[in-house]
Design a protein that fits this description.
alpha/beta, about 325 residues
């Protein structure tokens, strides 16, 4: 036994695993909890999805993430999650909160980005500030909580109601609003990363005239959370303890991406539907930043609670969220 080295042990273990019968291997696979999820394309959420799959992070924690269902329409993406067609959704936290308050069994697991990635673009020869948007046309995705949240932010921080004081040109995905302003068919475009960077790089005469994170800092303390992970209650009830497993998967995912952003983008960026140079610029600019904030952390939870007070104050939620909103 003194000569039985670690290398020999690993080799023996590997050889033994090769000799396992198909039935035994299948039993190991069956012990993993299946998790249904989806991805919204094009968009940055595909990056963490692909990173998790490529690095088998689910398997590491006893989970089996199925092939993500691809969506291109934001409304359908959320509606199918609300209908229970999949278990885990990466989306805006306020959308989850609104659905949960209307009776949908959703719990919020963690925040992965803040509202710095939400911005408004306009030509450099046009409006230079949101205060100049009166009478102008704004391209925006009205079906999203992002639009409603930004409307409230501008109203509180700048005293303008964009839905009453301007004309909203509705679009069906966040990339389309930027396309309209690039084609001079709108005076401004509301969207989020990496669409903002796409516009800035493809048409250098565009500029950012509004950042949601900056507007929130004018009216409240701390950062405004944005994208996070929602989980269906049925999955949590069926598999006690699974919330911690899924949370750990996303923690390791974001840590891995942040450790080498260029490598992560080069490996998986193509599947986001966004050119790698644009995705790298969005992450490098710090407008898009991955930061893991679990709802088991009191400071992270407090940021959501405080943000929900702002939304409730503006009629975007029926009331501030409570502890029942969070996955434990």
């Amino acid at each position: 036994m003194a000569n039985f080295t670690r290398r020999a042990f690993v080799g023996a273990t590997a050889s033994a695993s090769l000799m396992l019968s198909p039935n035994v291997k299948r039993a190991f696979a069956d012990s993993e909890i299946p998790v249904r999820w989806a991805s919204l394309q094009p968009g940055f959420t595909v990056l963490p999805v692909q990173y998790i799959l490529a690095n088998n992070l689910g398997k590491k924690h006893g989970l089996r993430f199925t092939d993500p269902v691809p969506y291109t329409a934001v409304s359908t993406y959320y509606n199918d999650f609300v209908a229970g067609n999949y278990d885990v959704c990466i989306g805006s936290w306020d959308t989850f909160a609104a659905r949960q308050q209307s009776g949908v069994p959703i719990r919020y697991l963690c925040t992965i980005t803040d509202a710095n990635m939400i911005a408004m673009l306009a030509p450099k020869t046009g409006v230079s500030d949101v205060s100049q948007l009166k009478g102008k046309t704004i391209a925006a995705l009205q079906s999203t909580g992002t639009y409603r949240m930004v409307r409230a932010l501008i109203k509180e921080a700048h005293g303008i109601d964009i839905e009453k004081d301007a004309t909203i040109q509705n679009v069906d995905n966040p990339a389309a609003s930027v396309t309209l302003v690039m084609a001079d068919r709108a005076d401004a475009a509301l969207s989020w990363e990496p669409n903002i960077t796409t516009g800035l790089m493809k048409k250098p005469d565009l500029r950012v005239i509004f950042k949601a994170g900056d507007a929130y800092h004018k009216i409240s303390e701390g950062d405004l959370p944005y994208f996070g992970v929602g989980v269906r209650q049925e999955l949590l009830d069926k598999h006690p303890g699974i919330a911690a497993k899924i949370s750990k998967v996303f923690e390791e995912c974001l840590s891995g991406i942040n450790a080498d952003i260029p490598k992560a983008v080069d490996l998986f960026g193509a599947k986001t539907g966004v050119p790698s140079d644009i995705l790298k610029e969005a992450l490098g600019s710090k407008r898009l930043t991955f930061k893991f904030r679990p709802m088991t952390d009191q400071a992270s939870r407090k940021s959501v609670l405080k943000a929900s007070e702002f939304l409730a104050r503006n009629g975007l939620l029926t009331k501030p969220v409570d502890d029942k909103f969070f996955a434990s």
